[in-house]
Specification:
The chain is α+β, with helices and mostly antiparallel strands and 99 residues long. The chain is built from three helices and five strands; from the N terminus they run H-E-E-E-E-H-E-H. The chain has a five-stranded antiparallel sheet, with no helix packed on it. The protein is globular, with a radius of gyration of 14 Å.
């Protein structure tokens, strides 16, 4: 008999904003997603999702977030934002070096 229960991935996806894009995996193994529309970062660690709206943090740019996470959790294992990428657009710069 088929089950209508969502899979773990479907449950996590339902908690992310519709425009959330993968940023990368931090040094502790949590995956980070960014919603430009919501100006919110979503952190997925195992089966939990935490959201961090920039209006509720001292962060003003995505580059600030990336730097903060690296200082707290160690070097990024994987990240998809680099020179001239999304962080540069959000920060309003032509190019930026991200951790």
């Amino acid at each position: 008999m088929p089950s209508n229960d969502p899979t773990l991935q479907e449950g996590i996806a339902a908690q992310l904003a519709h425009d959330a894009h993968y940023l990368g995996t931090d040094g502790d193994g949590a995956n980070h997603y960014w919603s430009q529309y919501e100006r919110t970062v979503y952190v997925v660690n195992d089966d939990t999702v935490e959201s961090w709206a920039f209006t509720e943090t001292p962060m003003t740019t995505l580059t600030d977030w990336l730097t903060h996470v690296e200082s707290k959790r160690g070097a990024w294992e994987d990240h998809r934002v680099g020179t001239g990428g999304v962080a540069a657009i959000i920060a309003g710069h032509d190019s930026t070096e991200c951790p």
